[in-house]
Every structure is written in structure tokens, then in C-alpha cells.
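Demo today. Your pick:
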Amino acid sequence: MNTTVELFFGLPPKDPEMKHFPLLGSHWPLTTIIAVYLIFILKLGPKFMENRKPYNLTYVLNFYNIFQVIYNSILFGLSIYYMIINPAYDWSCMMHLSLDHPEKNMERWLCYAYFINKIIDLLDTVFFVLRKSYKQITLLHVYHHVLMTSPVYWVFQFYGFGGQYTTLGFLNTGVHAVMYFYYFISARYPELKGSLWWKKYITKLQLLQFIILFIQPIYVLLFNPGCKFPLFLHILQLIVSTSMVTMFSRFYYLAYVKPKPQKSLKRK
């Protein structure tokens, strides 16, 4: 029984440095942030904007988008170095680095920086509310933002920094660097928005990242069954990636594949 439980969970001792990182010492700060976020975007925000005109956030969005491009590009570049150029992990079994590994602090700070960026991402929806762009606040949008924030915290708490889930951060920061660059161009030069043909390819990139994340645990379980990465985290990755592939596929179909209804011509 103990062997089965150990195989399923396989949790290592908690990283003693975890408590020194802001927002990681307790679940209450993040829980409060998520709760306030949901209450604001679903209830208080729309109520506040009910009798107000949409705010002009052009300058705020320009700064925010270019900030996100730079932030995600830096994380993506560092991820390329530590995962491909000078790999710290064995791709066939991505366990987190040992506490005495020379790159352990870099692993901690890269993961933490990614976590903070997922919190910053929540501003996307806040801006939608303040601009009264409610049609963009879809189930996929909210689900994606919450799912990319809260579970990251709990994985840190139960497993620690790094390991197989670093692949998520590696892929996600690359996709987000491209995505926020698109947002920057479309906000900075609204006259070009209709001609930015590569918008749909951003959704394809998002789909591709979750397909890769779906394949990864299957590959490890089939071809390296001796890997001690926790089984329940493999299962969690499969569940999350499946839900994301399903929802992004549906979004792509409705936005780019499904024929648009033709406007009827009125006789004069």
C-alpha cells in the first residue's frame, strides 16, 4: 500500500527556500487575488461600468503589452539556454534539480518569475472590463487565466520548483511573447488590425503547446517507466492539457473555420 501511494504521489521534501519567496509562504495571498479577480470581472466590474463610458486605455495597453513582450521573451530566452543549449534536465525524465545543484537558484527564480507573470496576466481581463469589451471575457479566457495561476502555486508547494512542468513555462512564455507582440501592434496601430493575418496562428501555437504537453507524460510513462516524477502530476498534466486542447480547438473552429452567416440584402 505504501509503495503504491509513494509511486502515485512521489513527493520530495519541500524546498526550504520556498518560504522566502513573496506569495509562496501561504496560499491565502493567491487565494485572495483569485477571489478578488473573479468577483471583479464577473460582478463588481460590470456593475461599476454599467453607467460609465469605456475607458480609453491606449497608453496603458501599449506599456502593458510591450512589458509583457519583454518579460516573456527574457524568460523564453533563459529557458532555451537551460533546457536546450546547456540543458540542466534529462528530457526523458525531468525531475527538479537537487538542492545542492549549481543551477538550483536559477531554477527557483525562473519558476518564480513565471508564477508572478501569470498573476500579472490577470490584468488582461481587468482591462476588458474597464473597456467594456465583455465579449472577450469568455469561459475559455477566464478558465485559462485561473488555471495557469493557481495550480502553478500548488505544484510548487507539493513538488517544488522546476521539473517536468518547466516545459509548460518554456512553451508558454514563447507563445505569450508572440501573442503580446500582436496585441501591442494592434493596439498601437489599430488601422493595421484587419491586415494582421497571423492572428489565427497564435491560436495554433497555443494549441500546439498543449498538444506537446499532452504527449510529454504519455511518452515518459511508456518509454521511461522508471522515471520517479510523481504519477499524479502526470495525470494532472494530461487532464489540463486535454481540457485546453478541447477548448482552444472549439475556439479556433468557431473563429476561423465555421462559415460566417451571410448578411441578407434588403430590397429597396
Remarks:
- The CA atoms of residues 212 and 241 lie 9 Å apart.
